[in-house]
Write a structure and sequence with these properties.
alpha+beta, ten-stranded antiparallel sheet, globular
């Protein structure tokens, strides 16, 4: 399969056009959606410099009807290898957050998609904060995954890694009722769906990621 791909690679122009389409969709993620309004969230420079993003959007959404906040982040890199060090078990502890030993990462199915769920907490003085992160990778092969090992497999493929990879995160604060989480993530997936679909639509036939658990 790799030999066939190398014999018939898509042109650099086609690859650039793909990345331009993805960037357009990510940068077009709506500021308002239904009862949600949002504002831009600044991410740490250390995180964005490692990612070398082709497109990156981070927005905090507020639901006017329910009085609930949620943060949506979606990032896409031109080279899948740049995604290797950026996922919740690495980037959040690097910013002072600790995973709960009694709350190990798990997979949940939301909107028919398998999503990885992480729980973190951080103490500042006498104040303890909790957050839950819902994480999902999207690949140009048309596959979605919860697994960093799938990102590494894509990165190891000389042809495919030129198309990059994307990651979606939804962050929900600990003061939000757990019963609202599924609905919130469903809403954030609706907001991000055109961008996710653009990532998946590189028209590469073989699948190199099938939703693992690592």
């Amino acid at each position: 399969m790799i030999a066939i791909l190398r014999a018939n690679p898509q042109s650099a122009i086609e690859i650039d056009q793909y990345h331009e389409r993805v960037a357009l969709e990510i940068n077009s993620i709506p500021v308002e959606f239904g009862d949600w309004v949002s504002k831009k969230v600044d991410l740490p420079n250390a995180a964005t410099s490692l990612l070398h993003p082709n497109a990156l959007v981070a927005r905090q959404y507020f639901n006017k009807d329910r009085g609930i906040f949620a943060t949506l982040m979606i990032v896409q890199c031109r080279d899948a290898r740049d995604m290797g060090g950026h996922y919740p078990p690495v980037c959040y502890p690097g910013n002072g957050w600790m995973q709960y030993p009694e709350k190990p990462a798990r997979n949940e199915t939301i909107e028919n998609e398998l999503i990885r769920v992480y729980s973190f907490h951080r103490v500042a003085g006498r104040v303890e904060r909790e957050i839950t992160i819902y994480n999902l990778f999207a690949f140009p092969t048309g596959a979605l995954s919860t697994s960093m090992s799938d990102v590494r497999k894509l990165s190891a493929n000389y042809e495919y890694r030129k198309y990059g990879a994307a990651q979606l995160q939804v962050m929900i604060s600990g003061d939000v009722d757990q019963q609202d989480h599924t609905w919130i993530v469903e809403e954030m997936l609706k907001i991000a769906r055109p961008a996710i679909d653009a990532v998946l639509d590189a028209q590469l036939k073989p699948n190199h990621g099938e939703g693992g658990t690592s």
